[in-house]
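Intended use. Records like the one below are meant for learning the mapping from a protein sequence to its folded structure. Do not use them to infer anything beyond what is encoded.
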Amino acid sequence: MLQTETVTIPETAQESSLAEYAAESCRRLAAGLLGNTGEELRTFLASEVQRLQAVLANPSLLEGAEPQTPPRFDRKGRVQITTNPVVSHRNPLAPPLMHHHDGDESEFRVTLPLQYQGPRNHLHGGYCAVLLDDVLWHSVRYAAPGISFTRELTVTYERPVPLFEELRIVGRVSRIEGRKTFAEGEIIAGGLVCARATGLWISPKPSE
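Structure written out for the chain above:
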């Protein structure tokens, strides 16, 4: 007889919203620490601390906020928190991006702040690869059943990727051969391709 799995949560929606608000506060702090000095930095830090203290003192300020990646219990009763450093709203390392999937294509949209800088006013090349790896993996996840792991990722840098303006990071599956899934994608700014990637993902062998 088919049994319906009982869905439980380890914290309330308000508590999850508080965690995500605190993560966003950490993102603002990171950008502010890099973009301010002296008295301006002191003023900025005091303002951020006051904002967080206000929410802690009055959780109703978060009323109506919907947590994006709340934790859950897995089937073994363990708390599972989305830690992904690209898409987790709870991880301060992750940028504030929007994720969309349509047909064969996955897309991120994001405006990246100062803490992702490599060359002045432009994205660090290593983080370009991180974004492309993740969006391609998401396209693979939708196209191929089960889990797959990155085996190869090749990134071609066409032009610097700007900070402080909206980026489109797009990934799509090009073909599937058994346990192998091939994907490709781009980072696009202002209608121009800034970086391209191709990669190979492999699913584990079925257990004997």
